[in-house]
Amino acid sequence: MFKFKVGDQVQVTAGRDKGIKGKVEKVLVFENKLVVAGANIYKRHKKVTRTKASGIYEITRPIPVSKVALICPKCAQTTRVGFVKEGKIKNRICKKCQGRLV
């Protein structure tokens, strides 16, 4: 089980986007990276195609998992993620408030 899921609220902890909060849009498990809305935005110059006009488009690039911290929905603090087994189900928990992460 991966520590981050699509829809989690996260905060960037390092790099040029340090302090930016956003939701996880995409999880790239094998690359160990996340796409976070509003963070790591780059400009890309595109040529004209049949479907799109030419111009300068803003794209969001993936961020390494090590530069991102999860924000707990209960205590609203950046936290680490732990795992607890309840029967056959494995749940994620907040390390600070011990609350279950949905």
Automatic annotation (TrEMBL):
Biological source species: Candidatus Curtissbacteria bacterium RIFCSPLOWO2_01_FULL_42_50
Function description: One of two assembly initiator proteins, it binds directly to the 5'-end of the 23S rRNA, where it nucleates assembly of the 50S subunit.
Protein name, entry field: Large ribosomal subunit protein uL24
UniProt-listed NCBIfam families: rplX_bact
A single MF term (Gene Ontology): rRNA binding
InterPro entries, per the entry: KOW, Rib_uL2_dom2, Ribosomal_uL24, Ribosomal_uL24_C, Ribosomal_uL24_KOW, Translation_prot_SH3-like_sf
Assembly notes: Part of the 50S ribosomal subunit.
Gene that this sequence comes from: rplX
Gene3D superfamilies linked to this entry: 2.30.30.30
Ubl conjugation is among the record's keywords: no
GO biological process, one term: translation
Recorded GO CC terms: ribonucleoprotein complex; ribosome
Keywords from the UniProt entry: Ribonucleoprotein, Ribosomal protein, RNA-binding, rRNA-binding
Domain KOW, residue spans: 3-30
SMART domains linked: KOW
Recorded family membership: Belongs to the universal ribosomal protein uL24 family.
